[in-house]
Every structure is written in C-alpha cells, then in structure tokens.
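Ops channel
N.P.: pipeline sanity check, posting one input/output pair.
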C-alpha cells in the first residue's frame, strides 16, 4: 500500500518502512506523528483512491527517528557596479521520519512492546579530570609602571622633501 501525503508545503509518495527527510516537525526521537493530509491512497493491482482534495478519514502514521539539520548553503547577493555584496549561510532544520503504517480508516497502529534496555554496569568510572585539580593560571595583569620601561623611544623621521625645499628657499 502507498499514499501521497502533504507536509511542509511538499508532497511525498510513501509506503510502510520508508524513511523520509522532511521539514522540521515538533517531536523528539521515538514520538509518533500522524499525517492527516492524505491526497492519494493506492494498492498493488487496484485503482488508487484520489481525494478531492483529501481522502476522507485516511491517515499515515510515522515515528520520528531523529531531528537533524541539512547541509549548509551559501546565499550570495550581488549587484554589479554598485558595490553591493551580501553573503549569508543557511542550514535547514530537518526531521527523519520512518513510516509505520498507512490507514484508510484513520485507525492508529498497535503499540509496539517496549524491549527492556540493557543497562551498563554501575561501576564508577575514573577520569583524569576528576583525579587532578585544575591548575591555576598565572595573573595576566601587569601594572602601568611595569609596562612603561618596556616601551622604546621612537626614532625621529627625516623631514619630508617638500618641507626641506621650503626651508632652503
């Protein structure tokens, strides 16, 4: 079974177990999302059901895999001969969604049984940072009296040629 859904201003053809990269949706990893804007429902060997504009009661359910960001793009604007240049970067927020089920009646999928997670042994872990105290940094401030002798007197520059020519005449 497949469906065409609309989300984030775009349309996607999906089937069960597909993983989509779509515009950011609210929800943490593992959260269930329901897509109610179903435009087309179809099965192998049958004519697809086309909505006008949406298929009644149909829904697609997905699980958030993770929240991520897309590749960086550079937005560069320029107007020639006007000394106008603007450079800006952008990374789009995205959500990875795995399609769990497609329902023509809008019925939610059965909840999966939670598998018990294996816990790591609870032994204390020693780190170097925990064993050694932080070393103090030496004071960086110096008094004005200490800085004054360090400066050297600037050498006098030779007078400019024009100024020298005026003095001669």
């Amino acid at each position: 079974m497949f469906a065409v859904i609309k989300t984030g201003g775009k349309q996607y053809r999906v089937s069960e177990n597909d993983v989509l990269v779509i515009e950011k949706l609210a929800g943490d990893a593992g959260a269930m999302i329901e897509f109610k804007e179903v435009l087309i429902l179809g099965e192998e060997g049958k004519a697809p059901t086309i909505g006008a504009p949406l298929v009644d009661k149909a829904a697609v359910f997905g699980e958030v895999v993770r929240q991520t960001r897309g590749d960086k793009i550079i937005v560069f604007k320029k107007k020639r001969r006007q000394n106008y240049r603007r450079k800006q970067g952008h990374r789009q927020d995205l959500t990875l969604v795995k399609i769990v089920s497609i329902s023509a009646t809008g019925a939610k999928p059965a909840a999966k049984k939670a598998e018990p997670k294996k816990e790591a042994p609870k032994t204390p872990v020693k780190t170097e940072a925990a064993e050694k105290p932080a070393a103090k940094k030496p004071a960086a401030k110096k008094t004005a009296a200490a800085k004054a002798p360090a400066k050297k007197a600037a050498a006098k520059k030779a007078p400019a040629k024009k100024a020298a020519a005026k003095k001669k005449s």
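N.P.: looks fine end to end. Residues 2-103 form one domain.
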